[in-house]
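Please produce the structure of this protein holding copper (II) ion.
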Amino acid sequence: MKKIILSITIASVALVLSGCGYGQKTATTPAVSNQPAVQPAAPAAATPAPTNNVVNQPVAAPAPAVSNKTVNVSIQNFAFNPTPVRVKAGDTVVWVNDDPAPHQIKAPSFNSQTLNTGDSFSFKFTTAGTYDYGCAIHPSMAGQVIVE
Ligand SMILES: [Cu+2]
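Below is the modeled complex.
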């Protein structure tokens, strides 16, 4: 009987000791003081605010409502070249006298001064239509501007 009690006592002591040992093991995980401090989160202000790209994007320029080109018509050998000349509303037609003789553009809606050699006359067509013209000096000359 004594032997049994002794055995139990020994076993209990062993259990307690071992239990203590494990307990110490788990308890001895001291915080390592040499570890670098946890980086503080970046302040919210440092984060760039999201920009509204849709608003800031350049808007594509709309197509011009009217054309704005210059088209030349040469006067050579008592004729207009090219004729008819096709332009768009807003375009300007420039006649240049490349003849040795003088010419004068004549039409119901536009007229030039006498154009000597090298002189030019320009007229801006803003309304679509077909414009017949001629030369005030030489009635046989005829030309046409088609404005689209
Ligand atoms: Cu002429």
